[in-house]
Amino acid sequence: MTKLKIGDNAPNFESKDEKGNIVQFSDFRGKKLVLFFYPKASTPGCTAEACDLRDNYDSFLAKGYAILGASADSAKRQQSWIKKHELPFPLLADEDRIVINAYGVWGPKKFMGKDYDGIHRTTFVIDENGIIEDVITKVKTKAHSAQILS
Predict the structure, then answer these.
(1) Which of 77, 107, 111, 137 is the most buried (most CB within 10 A)?
(2) CATH class of this structure's domain 14-149
(3) Phi and psi of 14, rounded to 5°?
């Protein structure tokens, strides 16, 4: 779905997280970033993915990665999800889909025979200089950390 590829500059962004704090791409300059887009907080696949990242969070920190999730969910829904599953990383409440569209992860989908537009589950691994190191479009929700860290 996304047209971004390895070697591209990651798009700049500014959005609000679940607490209403402004988060900018520039906040992560000099750090490695795992930016994961997921369709909807509190759904089984998204919860499996986020909990796998949570369970391996120390491994990401040890390798110098920050983790940031993003969906079109409201800040309230993101807060509830973080609290329920003790997620240690911030989540963008990108209700206007500015970041989602910048990364090209919104588009036509099909589920149970129905066509609709939504977020394609995609993860971008971005280096300290803002260059995309990896684009993961076939996310294994229960083993996503292994996909990223390998």
Answers:
(1) 77
(2) alpha beta
(3) -145, 130
Where are the domains positioned within the chain?
A: 14-149
Q: Which residue has the tokens 């206007």?
A: 96
Q: What is the CA radius of gyration of the chain?
A: 14
The owner of tokens 């479009």 is 137
| Nearest C-alpha neighbor of 15 from the set 82, 73, 57 | 73
* Residues classed as catalytic: 46
CA distance readout (Å), 99 to 32, 82, 94, 108: 18, 20, 7, 17
* 1: pLDDT strictly greater than 80: no
Tens digit of each residue's pLDDT (9 = 90 or more) over 37-57: 999 999 999 999 999 999 999
Contacts of 19 (CB under 8 A, 6+ apart): 75, 79, 90
Show the 3-state SS of 87-133: CCCCEEECCCCHHHHHCCCEEEEEECCEEEEEECCEEEEECCCCEEE
